What we know:
The chain is α+β, with helices and mostly antiparallel strands. 32% of the residues lie in helices and 31% in strands. β4 and β5 (81-94) form a beta hairpin.
Amino acid sequence: MRDRATERWGTYEAFHVPLGDKRVADIVITNHAKARYEDRIKDTKARYEDIALWLWECLKQNRISPYYRKEEDVYLVDDDIVMVAEFSELTGEYDLAGRPLHRMIIVTFLGLMSETIELRDLKSYYSWLRHSRRMTLMKNSRKRK
């Protein structure tokens, strides 16, 4: 997904939007992210292009922020939607200062904080999830003996 509306004559710099220390010039939606978007965010079928266009607009309007200050993989959209993203450098594409441009790969959408209270503190939620799975596995292994 590239921003097609910003093509101008006489511009030598590729269009990008800063997000933290990254310069996002492209957005890619994975199959898993599309399925989670349809399941947890919108109840209707969505196309990859529609999701990418919506995220691109959110990026341009500065509506995407990091979930944690130090980590760069979990992001909040409109202070409600929790998503996981990875970044990869675009080969051969740089801004005017010579810094590399990045592709934002949306891995998954975790859901809405307003609907799922557990998303308010991801670290304790995942800690609890790991613990409950471990306890279930231990209980099942005891039954087999």
